[in-house]
DNA sequence: TATTATTAAAGTCAAAGATAGTCAACCAAT
DNA sequence: ATTGGTTGACTATCTTTGACTTTAATAATA
């Protein structure tokens, strides 16, 4: 039996298909109203059926003019990167593993030097060793680290 | 979803572009009337989208004959913009602020499209909203996000 | 002329409005 | 008993509005 989540999933995929494929932007409350369900149900559908593992990424914004944008990954844009993304990166990657992976990406010419710097910066221990669990604080440190990487 | 603030932002940027580039002078009340919004809305747009870290400076005068002058900074003539950017990034940067900053960097040709994607990915809410305070876990999510950014 | 009042701007800040996110409790079907 | 789905209370974030303040130019007055 199709649950409401299944129905919403199909609906969203149909939307993406109709929009020639790669992305669609929705209002969470509208969709929820349309299917007469709780708004948070949309989040459930997104996390269980539109994750990176499923081949999608999500982008959203709160507040007035808020939205949720669902984008399909395009493996054909870079099959090697896609394969690495899907098969090689587990849920726990140590700093050493990250450094090796980034170097490998570079050696296969999948990323250039600047991009490698950005990645090392964003995943460095310095950045991630946060005493507070504060998103904005971490984000600013990540941004600073990435800009530093491009300047020095 | 384009908010009225977004529309005003585009309008002002278009004005600057048309004026061959570097500066434009407006009347706050006129713009507000034109877009049928509160005058203070203009200030909101200016502070959220035309600050120094976005590559602009503002100059204004109150009273009779008052005005607001928006000037574009020129990074190529002023290398210390890098310095300004580093100093302007506070310890708390929201996602929206990060997105706008990254776009400004791009508009000033300090980073290219791929680099902007990497930065947005590494600083996205999805990545940083970690319930666990686990470095390796976060790092893998950041890496995945960055790779996704290169293929979507 | 010097001073004061009036008018015409722009600035500030906090409250209200509009979205989306999180999380834990509850429910249903294996 | 476990897994997956549903709901709603609470939270976070961004935008819009308006009352009040500040400043500058001009007009009126001493």
Automatic annotation (TrEMBL), chains A, B:
Domain spans labelled CtsR C-terminal dimerization: 83-147
Domain of life from the UniProt record: Bacteria
Residue ranges of domain CtsR N-terminal HTH in the record: 4-73
KW DNA-binding (keyword) present: yes
Keywords: DNA-binding, Repressor, Transcription, Transcription regulation
Family of this protein: Belongs to the CtsR family.
Protein name stated in the entry: Transcriptional regulator CtsR
The species this protein was found in: Anoxynatronum sibiricum
């Amino acid at each position: 039996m199709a649950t409401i989540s299944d129905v919403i999933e199909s609906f969203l995929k149909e939307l993406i298909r109709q929009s020639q494929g790669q992305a669609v932007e929705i209002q969470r409350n509208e969709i929820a109203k349309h299917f007469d369900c709780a708004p948070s149900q949309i989040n459930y559908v997104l996390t269980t059926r539109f994750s990176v593992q499923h081949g999608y990424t999500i982008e959203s914004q709160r507040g007035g003019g808020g939205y949720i944008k669902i984008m399909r990954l395009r493996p054909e844009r870079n099959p090697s990167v896609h394969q690495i993304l899907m098969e090689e990166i587990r849920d726990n990657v140590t700093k050493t593993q990250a450094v090796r992976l980034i170097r490998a990406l570079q050696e296969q010419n999948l990323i250039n030097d600047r991009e490698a710097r950005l990645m090392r910066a964003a995943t460095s221990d310095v950045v991630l060793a946060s005493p507070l669990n504060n998103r904005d604080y971490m984000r600013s440190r990540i941004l600073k680290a990435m800009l530093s990487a491009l300047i020095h």
